[in-house]
Amino acid sequence: MNALKSIIKYQVHDTFRSKWLVVYTLFFVVLSYGLLSFTNDSNKVILSLLNINMIVIPLTSLIFGTIYLYNNRDYIILILSQPINRKTLFVGLYLGLSVPMVLSFLLGTGLPILIYIRNFKEAGTVLLNLFVGGVFETFIFVSVSFLIATMNENKMKGLGLAIFLWLFFTALYDGLILITLQVLREYPLEIPSIIFTILNPIDLSRLLVILRFDISALMGYTGAVFNQFLGSGFGMIVSIISLAVWCVVPLFFGLKTFSRKDF
Amino acid sequence: MIRAEKLYKKYGALEALKGLDVEIKSNTLTYIVGPNGSGKTTFIKSVLGLVKPTSGNIFVDGTKLNGIYNYRAKIGYMPQIASFPENLSVKEVLTLLKEIRNVNEKFDDELIHLLNLEKEFEKRIKTLSGGTKQKLNAVIAFLFNPQILILDEPSAGLDPVSSSILKDKILKEKNAGKTILFTSHIMSELEELAEEIIFLLEGSICFAGKKDELIAMTGEKNLERAIANLMVGEKV
Question: What is the pLDDT of residues A184-194, one digit of tens each?
Fold first, then answer.
């Protein structure tokens, strides 16, 4: 336990001092502050933040995560030559990267919102869900990136796969669902569409925010199905549990691969 | 003591170790030699638990290695390439390792003074030169007073002064009863340091024994020529 604490502590120190994290935080500050300067409508701001976050957070988490593991390979070897469990090191590296990224997102997006907090009086829960979604996205995609980097020795292959996965979940996936729903329109598709949504963590995070909006037109087909079948409250619980599963499963397989891997 | 029994390691179709049977006695300075790709690093990494053998067993002081990690408290390792988180300071890296090992006293910090590393303590790793990082690597290997020292090309990247300080330190530790295992391509280093030689060729042992035995066996006048002789496979 002490070793885990030390690994996390020093990895967090290392990540916090890196320039890219400063740039990442500034990006959120500029985005959040910029949107808030344009309009007083909190719903518009939250939706714009949601749409941009759902593109930027998965991409940066995937890229930073894979590069981080590849670049630290010799350091990993040095630490593994110490009396330490491989699982401890893996979890330590994971939290050492994801926690600063989460804090950077919360701080960058949150600070400008705090300045304009009077605009968000009636949007408390939606705002909270926006942050919960962003936090989950970071943990999920860093976890996926660690799985990719431990499974692929080749850095270029790993990075290519990370970018492809990002493209798949942000763009291709929704297109494929639309085609599937269109082709199978003769059949009842409510349950499959719920399953499709659960299988994409980005859609899940989006749903988390959208379920809190009262404007059903914003929900899209899957949002409406979620709302209709599961209700807004239960739908939220299903989304959060699915997001948690999305964090744990890649991390678990990453951990297994890391434990067996040759360095 | 380190003992390997029928150690095999395959990387896909490539067989890096082919049934290695070897024993490294306590309180000896053993040099592992062999051409590139002969399995030296794979063997060292197997002892450290960094590489999982395909089959066979390794024992360190009688303890069988099967996924355990506590035995590494007895080992100090100096890898060929030094790499640390670049935004941490030298002091933080050393504190991190002390915390991982959960050791708060009895450090062997002689090399820190000898290599004049104190003045670099507050500097971040990314500002250090390659040689200074290698000095830090050496300091880390000796810091916890380990019973076994595994040094992979210890002089690579060090200036002649630091290199001779390190050699003296290796001899000192040997005389203090440590088991030292090292690889090097610098022949003069072998002549000076090695007692036992393990010569690997394509994943198998070609020669294992005392330095003098190897010289006598090959009929050459010194170790450098004896090893060159083995490498070209004239008298095996």
Answer: 888 888 788 88
